[in-house]
Design brief:
Blueprint (H helix, E strand, L loop, with lengths): L12 E3 L2 E6 L2 E4 L6 E7 L2 E4 L2 E4 L1 E8 L5 E8 L1 H15 L2
Antiparallel strand pairs: 1-2, 2-3, 3-4, 4-7, 5-6, 7-8
Length: 94
Amino acid sequence: MLNANGVDTNEFLEYKGRPLVRQGDDIFYGDMSETYYIYMMIMTERDTDNGTIPDKIMVQLCESSTKIPKNQKIVVGFKEAFEFADAWLERFNK
């Protein structure tokens, strides 16, 4: 994986102990070796005093073997998207 400076690393960013990869508006969350992982797409952004932040985010629970979405939800805000994603992974990867 390349970091922001283009330097090769063997480490991923993590959220709650799970790998997290973002490229542009696409975010992959979870371990691909488990049964399910999360795909998120930033659909809209909004301007704030501190810059532009993601607003509306599509969250999909995908099966690793087929890459076909099992569940999909559109949420508002990064925090809500990650809480939803983490709950799905906890529930379906047992």
